[in-house]
Design goal:
The protein is built from 10 helices and 8 strands. Strands 2-1-3-4-6-5-8-7 form an 8-stranded mixed beta sheet, with helices on both faces. α8 (about 225-230) links the parallel β7 and β8 (about 240-245). The protein is an alpha/beta fold. It binds thiamine diphosphate and iron/sulfur cluster. Iron/sulfur cluster binds near residues 19 and 50.
Length: about 280
């Protein structure tokens, strides 16, 4: 039986007390335990940032890469070994700024992995610069006169034909754990945008600010309806929806690649390249 103890890490946590990342960490562990998933079957791939430190504070396999380059590494790992449950982790900077092109590609291709975007609407690790999702007018070190129009990551993902799209809140741990579970179970690319208060550098979008605004999409909401999802994705302000915004079933990337018809790369024989012959051809 898998328990929370299996996911206990001895690495001291460097997050600020009260950071929203703690709630996300709890939700990730809860989801993995609920799914009875053993740490050795999970691969966390993360970039650079406060959110991307999450894999250090739990157990599992880890690949920690460059800022904004989480998804290429996560995609490669999934193509090489389909048996792994791959969970990508980034902040909103890594996911929607530096790495946004990779997000579009992973969503369009429908790579079978779960991507958690810790959306604190600021660059936390580098101490408070504005990010692509910062509120209009947000005052930061890089935007002393207020930041410009924010990006809507949900609309962007829907435009890329994402097959699973959800939004969670770090202050609603059980609900968020349910979304992560659903994202892992979903066969295809699952983006979960997670509203994550940064208590040190974002004094606009605080826990209290979110608690006044977030609401769970009701049982009458149909996540299979893309037109409804496009409307839901644009709700922001006095009311902010959380829950599964959109879900569809379509072929996953690894099932469409002819190179993988013979199975995942780890199961295929290694045939050394005949380099000498190749060199002769170009010689
Ligand atoms: C390509 C690149 N650009 C910029 C940096 C510097 N840098 C490191 S972390 C970071 C901000 C991280 O913010 P975010 O991705 O939102 O994560 P958070 O720390 O808020 O969780 C930046 C700008 C970098 N390491 N690599
Ligand atoms: S700076 Fe912000 S995101 Fe980073 S640990 Fe502190 S509260 Fe969390």
């Amino acid at each position: 039986m898998v328990t929370l103890n299996d996911y206990k890490s001895d690495v001291p946590v460097a997050w600020c007390p009260g950071c929203g990342n703690f709630g996300i960490l709890q939700a990730v562990k809860k989801a993995l335990v609920e799914l009875a998933m053993k740490p050795q079957d999970v691969l966390f791939v993360s970039g650079i940032g406060q959110g991307p430190k999450l894999p250090h504070y739990t157990r599992g396999n880890v690949f920690n890469g460059l800022h904004g380059r989480t998804l290429p590494a996560a995609t490669g790992a999934k193509l090489a070994n389909h048996a792994l449950t791959v969970i990508g982790i980034d902040g909103d900077g890594g996911a929607y700024g530096e790495g946004v092109q990779h997000l579009l590609a992973a969503a369009r291709r429908n790579v079978d992995l779960t991507y958690l975007a810790h959306n604190n609407q600021v660059y936390g690790l580098t101490k408070g610069q504005a990010s692509p999702t910062s509120e209009l007018g947000f005052i930061s070190k890089t935007t002393p006169l207020g930041s410009g129009q924010p990006l809507n990551p949900l609309l962007l993902a829907l435009a890329s034909d994402v097959s699973f799209l959800a939004r969670g809140f770090a202050g609603e741990i059980d609900h968020l754990a349910g979304l992560i579970e659903a994202g892992i179970k979903h066969k295809g690319f699952a983006l979960i945008d997670i509203l994550q208060p940064c208590v040190s550098f974002n004094h606009t979008n605080t826990f209290a600010w979110y608690k006044q605004r977030v609401y769970k999409v009701g049982a009458d909401y149909n996540p299979a309806d893309k037109a409804a999802a496009l409307v839901k994705a644009q709700e922001w302000g006095d009311k902010i929806p959380i829950g599964i915004i959109y879900q569809q079933s379509r072929p996953v990337y690894e099932d469409t690649l002819p190179q993988l018809k013979a199975g995942p790369l780890v199961k295929q024989p290694i045939t050394p390249l005949k380099l000498e012959k190749l060199m002769e051809e170009f010689g």
